Structure formats: C-alpha cells, structure tokens
Design the sequence.
C-alpha cells in the first residue's frame, strides 16, 4: 500500500497548482509592446552579430503579414501582442561565472522546484544514480547551465542559445531555421523575431552523450511572454536524450509561451526528446489566467537510419497548440510520438503530431492518450503522409481518449495521405469513459474513488509512461494523478 | 461555398476549393474555370436503368428534369434514376423521399452518365424516415470519366427509425458523394457503407457526417476502396456526439488498397465527442495487397491479374454482404466483379 499512500499524500499536499508561487526578483524589462525597436533591443541585449539581427528583423516583417491561425479547436480571447513584455531578465552581472554569482532568490526558486543546479548536489545522490545536466531558463534568459565542462570533454556542446550565437556562430547559422523556417507559421514567426533564450546542443559524430540533458523553463515576470528557441544537432551516429520541464506562477492574466524546437539528425543519429509540460493551467473553477502554450516542434531526420522519439506529458497550460513533428527524409529513418494529454478545469488542448514520410522504408509510430475531465476539451490532431518516393513506409497510430465527467469533450481528427502503393498505414482510435465496472472492482477492494481513478488512469497511459526516462516517469505519473484530482464525484 | 451556389449565381469563386477544410482533397475551384451553360432538356430514350427489374416503381430524372410517369411508390422498392446527358453543360436536381412511420422502403438509386460530353451535375436529396420506419438506400454511381458530380443527401431519422446505406462508385473527373445524418439516438439505427473502385484519373470522395443528438443511438460505418493508375480516393467521416447523447455506440471503418505508385488515398476519420458515457471507435488502414496471398494463388495456377481481382473482390465483398435487400446485393456483387474484370458465372 506504500505507493498508494504516497499518491494520496501527494494529492492531499498539492491540492492546487504546486508551482504557482511567484518570486520577487529585481528584473529588467524591455518596454512593453512589439516593434522593430524591441527586436533590435533584444538583439543588442544579447550582443548578437549583425546576421542574427537581420534574421530577426526579416522574421518580424514577415510576421506582420501573417494572420493568427484559427483552425484549432480552442477558444481564447484575442491576444493583444502590444500588451506584453518581450524581454524580462533577472538583473545580474553580465554572464555569471559561477553559481555563487547567481541571485540567491533564483537559486531558491529552483531549489523549491526540485531542480538540481549545483553539480555536487546531483552527485551527492546514490552512487551510480543517473546524472543529468541542466540549462535553467528564467523568463527570457538562461541563468545557468551545469556540467558544461564534463560534456565539453567528450565534444558535446550544451549551452544557452545566446551563448551559442556568440561562440558557435557557424553552427547556429548553418542550422537555425533549417527545420522550422521563419515564416513556417504565425507563432514560429513571432518566435523567430523575438526569441530570447533556450538551449543549444551539438553532439559530434559517433558520440553518445554521457548524461541526460535537460532544460527547465520558468516564467516568473508578470505580463511577459516566453519565447525560447531550442536547437539540437545530432551528427552522424550520435545519440542524446533531452528532457524539458516547465512551470509558471499563478496569475489572473494569460501569458503567452511561443517556443520553437528544432532537431537535426544526420546518418544513424538518435534523439530522444521528452517533455513534461506543467505550465499554470488557469483557475480550475473560473478558467481565469493560465499560459497559452503555442509551440512548434519539429525533427528533421536528414540522415539515413536516423531515429527521433518525442515523448510528451501535457498536463498544464490553459490552451495548448502543439504538434511535434517528424520529417522522415533519410532512408530507413524512423519517428515515434508518445503523448499523454490531460485536461481538467477549463483547459483546452489541441495537440498531436505530423509524420511526413519522404524517404524509402521510413517508419513511424504514434501512441496518443488523451484524458479530459471537468469542463475541458482535448483534441488529437495528426497527419500521416507518404510521398510517392517513400516506398515501403509504415505507420501505426493509436489514439485513445478517456472522458471523465459530463461536461468535457474529446476529439480525434487524424489526416492520412497515402501517395504510393507500397506503404502500409494503420490507424485506430477509441473514445470511452472510465468503466464503472473497473471503478467498482477497485473500490470493492478498498481503494477510495480517487485512488481507483488514479490507478485506472495510470493503467490507461502506461504505454506512454514506459517511454519516459525513469526519473521523469515517476514525476509524470504523480502529475497525471494530481491533474485529475477532484474530477470525479 | 457550394456547387449549388456557384451554379445559381454563375460565379466560380463560390465553388469550394482546397482552402475549405471540408473540401481540401476535392478541389472544384481549381478544376472549373467557368460555369458551363445549363443542360438542355433531353426527351429521347435513356434506356433501362440498372435496377428497373427489381423495383415496384421508378422515378427518372434526366438533366435535372423529372420525367412524367406513375407516382413513386411509398413502400416497397423505388428505383430512382439520375441520368446525365450533357455536352459540357451543367444541371441541378433535387428529390425528397419520406417514409411514413412504421413503413419500409428500399431506394435503389443510380447515377448514369450517357452520351460523350462531360457534365457538371449537382444533386440534392432529402430523406425523412418516420418513427419505427425502415429505409435502405443503395446507390450505384456510373459517371462518365470527365464528369463532375456532387451529390448531397440530408437524412433525418425519427426515434426508432432505421436507415442503411451502401454507395458503390467508380468515380469521375471529380466526384463527391456526401451524406449528412441527423441522428436522434432513441434506438434509431444507422448504417453507412461505401465502396469505391477507381482507375485511370478518376476521383471519388465519400464524405459522411453523423450528428448524434440524443441517448441510445447506434451508428455503424464501413467503407472500403481500391485505387489504381493515377486515381484518388477520399474518405472523410465525421461522427459528432452532442452533449447528453449518452449510450451512443458508433463505429467507423475505412480500409483502402493502393495498386499503383501514382494512386492516392486520403482519409480523415473524425470523432467529436461531447458526452462521456459513449463508446466510439474508428479504424483506418491503407496499404497494398498482400504479396504472399498473391503468391499463394499463383502457386495454385491462378494468373496474377486474376488473383489480384479475386483478392480485391474478397476485400470489398465484406461491404457488399452487408446489403440487406437480397436482389440488390446480388446485383452489387456482379457490379463489383464486372469492374474488377471478373465475370461471375
């Protein structure tokens, strides 16, 4: 019963959004609003070269001509793009040299969130325990990146995007925007103009990254948006596993998070990208506040036999608009997408994936589990397409939706486009509610209703949880239980 | 945006295009440059319809004009013929069928393209099925290769009604066969099936939308298709379960075979669910014929072409077997065999 007891305690202790605290830190803002001057301001703040500024300005001008997309099954008030800060950074000495120079308040935030920023803290654990390097992004800037030296010893570059632009300009210039072009979509274009930080990873040929890499995103400042940009390049035969986590304070106003993640995979490379997204979902009763999470994530499997795997646990955000995609260009490349989307209260999630088969013998697998409770809406939207040259392409898709309560909704909208005669596509989807029989069975054996729901839901999402790195899987399991707290009865 | 509106106004910009989400794979705007002139009335002989021998009475509509004849039977079997004899012209046709409470009617509907020129046909149908009534609709579509046809059927079911439909088509230059059903739940039963067998540059789009508005409704959908050469098959199925429509049981299946590397199949099976006590599922598979099965057949002395036809016939046969009206089922079986190049002795 220990595990169950632990869940109960976790649920009881965290009746509300656990990470909703705010921190008063002396911060520096760009003036509110968006204009070419703001773009220049951000670029100047980051001491960027001219080519980067030109790239941003080009994106900004394109963005002005684009229209905000309205096809997703989400409703939200019109965003006033002039009523937000596009740059917010903790006031600190330029580029802290060590952790001791970082504002203790910020360190306290990460300590509270349980993110190890001191390398010795990570090492202090049980001998042989998995280690992971962290890039901590606080509002618009990266405050610290750990284990850089150890990673550099094997040739792995892991740093913040601003640092990469300054120190690895050639690599950034070569790959930035090559997977998600500036004018790809409205939010990606906005991000290209104003992105402030994010992580940059380069794994050299044949290197297996010795530890898990992770980024922890925190929005803190009021009325600000977060626009991070992540670029991961896995050279020939390289491997890395990357984790991403995010939280934000509870506020009555909506805040915008528009990120872009680009993955580049050359021959025989492999990237495993896991996300636990836990932005503030808004007030569960009134739906007030919460983060608008409009994210573009795409992996380009350029090399033959490369492999990418997206795993996501989406429990937060008021509105989610996110379709991590795989462009399977290299012969024999493969893409995987495992997703759990939990919505409760007034949350809305329109999420899914795109598997674009361009090369021969490419394979993809999609397992998406959606759980809706309260007054929420959860939509799976996915595209699987095979080009005439993608002979021997294979796809398997499974989308299951679980409904808890009378006022929620679950939708499944898959698009399948098959353009050659030697591919196989299989898709299946189901929508059901939590079975009364199963609930009754669990309750009969002494579990209360909430424990029974947690148990059944964990069984429902098991296929996806198994794909997460171990330490994330435990956290994700608790998160799913907590997100659904109070949804039954 | 609709073909009807474009025909009425003569304005091509009213035609649905790829930019309209529901028409993304059936682009009329990009195909039709100008709205053709109206098809003239044709008074000559149009020959016998495919279902004439099975029907108690028939209604013949040629180029949008209803031919004079006996009134349509209200029970039993009605043969409903839409004959198009155009020469690069356009026409509109409408027809309504009402089945009184407790009655049973079978509608055997045929689309017949005659003559040599292409045509643009827009057909609107209304089906109203009364309480406890039963209606089975079997649609045989044989359009000309350069025809553009849009047929839209609106079906309203009363509590306890039963509506079953099977569409069999060989496609056209562009063809859209859409069925929209208002399902009240209340023990009403719905079956929506379809078969498309396409070759050369033919295109067929089978679109359905079922809206479950009340408790206790069932829907069963099965569409199967085969595309060869440069043909394109489209399936769009949408099942909506409105708030409160509990105990809905809806299943949707679409399975297609692609025989050539230039053929294409596009599918969008959608479930939009606003009620929690439901059981809804859809399945979709697209692929080639099993090479091992072909090898097996060839080993036993069956030539490859015949083996392919035989396997395809078996594949789509599952849909044919769901037709309840026995003589129509036999006719459908023969139609499939004929289009796959096999003759049934």
Sequence:
């Amino acid at each position: 019963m220990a595990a169950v007891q632990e869940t109960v305690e976790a649920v009881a202790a965290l009746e509300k959004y656990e990470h909703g605290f705010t921190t008063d830190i002396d911060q520096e803002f760009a003036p509110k609003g968006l204009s070419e001057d703001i773009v220049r301001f951000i670029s100047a703040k980051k001491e960027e070269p001219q080519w980067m500024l030109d790239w941003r300005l080009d994106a900004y001008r394109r963005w002005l001509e684009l229209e905000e997309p309205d096809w997703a099954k989400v409703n939200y008030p019109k965003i006033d793009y002039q009523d937000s800060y596009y740059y917010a950074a903790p006031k600190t000495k330029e580029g802290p040299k060590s952790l001791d120079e970082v504002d203790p308040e910020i360190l306290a935030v990460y300590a509270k969130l349980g993110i190890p920023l001191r390398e010795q803290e990570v090492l202090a654990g049980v001998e042989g325990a998995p280690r992971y390097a962290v890039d901590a992004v606080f509002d618009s800037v990266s405050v610290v990146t750990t284990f850089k030296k150890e990673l550099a010893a094997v040739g792995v570059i892991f740093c913040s995007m601003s640092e990469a632009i300054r120190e690895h300009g050639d690599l950034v210039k070569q790959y930035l925007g090559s997977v998600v072009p500036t004018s790809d979509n409205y939010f990606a274009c906005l991000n290209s103009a104003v992105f402030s930080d994010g992580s940059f990873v380069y794994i050299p040929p044949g290197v297996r990254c010795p530890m898990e890499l992770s980024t922890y995103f925190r929005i803190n400042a009021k009325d600000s948006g977060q626009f991070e940009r992540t670029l991961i390049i896995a050279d020939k035969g390289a491997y890395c596993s990357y984790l991403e986590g995010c939280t934000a304070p509870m506020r009555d106003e909506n805040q915008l998070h528009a990120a872009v993640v680009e993955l580049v995979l050359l021959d025989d490379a492999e990237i495993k990208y896991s996300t636990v997204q836990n932005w503030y979902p808004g007030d569960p009763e009134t739906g007030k506040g919460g983060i608008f999470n409009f994210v573009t994530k795409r992996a380009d499997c350029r090399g033959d036999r490369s492999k990418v795997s997206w795993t996501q646990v989406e429990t937060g955000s008021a509105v989610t608009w996110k379709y991590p995609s795989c462009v399977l260009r290299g012969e024999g490349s493969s893409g995987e997408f495992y997703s759990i989307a939990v919505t409760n209260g007034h949350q809305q999630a329109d999420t899914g994936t795109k598997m674009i088969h361009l090369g021969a013998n490419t394979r993809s697998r999609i397992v998406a589990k959606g759980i809706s409770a309260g007054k929420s809406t959860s939509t799976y939207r996915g595209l699987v397409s095979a080009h005439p040259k993608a002979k021997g392409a294979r796809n398997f898709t499974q989308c299951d939706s679980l409904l808890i309560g009378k006022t929620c909704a679950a939708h499944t909208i898959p698009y399948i486009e098959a353009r050659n005669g030697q591919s196989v596509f299989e898709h299946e989807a189901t929508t059901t509610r939590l079975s009364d029989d199963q609930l009754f069975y669990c309750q009969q054996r002494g579990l209360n209703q909430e424990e029974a729901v947690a148990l059944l839901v964990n069984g429902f999402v098991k296929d996806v949880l198994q794909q997460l790195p171990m330490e994330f899987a435990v956290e994700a399991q608790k998160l799913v239980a907590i997100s659904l707290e109070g949804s039954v009865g | 945006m609709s073909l009807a509106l474009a025909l009425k106004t003569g304005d091509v910009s009213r035609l649905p295009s790829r930019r309209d989400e529901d028409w993304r794979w059936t682009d009329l705007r990009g195909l039709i440059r100008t709205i053709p002139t109206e098809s003239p009335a044709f008074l000559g002989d149009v020959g016998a319809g495919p279902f004439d021998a099975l029907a108690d009475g028939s209604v013949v509509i040629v180029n949008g004009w209803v031919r004079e004849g006996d009134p349509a039977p209200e029970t039993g079997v009605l043969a409903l013929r839409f004959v198009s004899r155009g020469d690069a012209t356009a026409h509109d046709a409408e027809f309504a069928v009402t089945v009184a409470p407790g009655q049973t009617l079978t509608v055997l509907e045929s689309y017949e393209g005659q003559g040599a020129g292409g045509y643009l046909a827009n057909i609107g149908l209304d089906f109203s099925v009364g309480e406890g009534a039963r209606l089975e609709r079997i649609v045989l579509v044989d359009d000309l290769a350069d025809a553009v046809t849009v047929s839209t059927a609106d079906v309203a079911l009363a509590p306890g009604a039963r509506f079953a439909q099977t569409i069999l088509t060989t496609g056209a230059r562009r063809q859209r066969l859409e069925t929209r059903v208002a399902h009240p739940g209340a023990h009403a039963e719905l079956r929506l099936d379809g078969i498309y067998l396409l070759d050369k540059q033919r295109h067929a789009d089978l679109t359905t939308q079922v809206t479950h508005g009340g408790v206790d409704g069932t829907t069963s959908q099965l569409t199967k298709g085969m595309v060869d050469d440069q043909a394109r098959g489209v399936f769009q199925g949408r099942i909506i379960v409105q708030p409160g429509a509990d105990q809905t049981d809806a299943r949707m299946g679409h399975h297609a075979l692609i025989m050539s590397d230039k053929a294409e199949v596009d599918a969008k099976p959608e479930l939009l669910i606003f009620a929690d006590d439901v059981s809804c599922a859809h399945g979709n598979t697209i692929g080639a014929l099993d090479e091992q099965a072909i090898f097996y057949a060839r080993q036993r002395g069956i030539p490859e072409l015949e083996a392919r036809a035989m396997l395809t016939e078996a594949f789509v046969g599952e849909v044919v077997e769901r037709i309840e009206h026995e003589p129509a089922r036999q006719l459908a079986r023969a139609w499939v065999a004929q289009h796959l190049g096999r003759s049934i002795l």
In short: The interface with chain B takes residues 71, 388, 391, 401, 403-433 of chain A (CB under 8 Å).
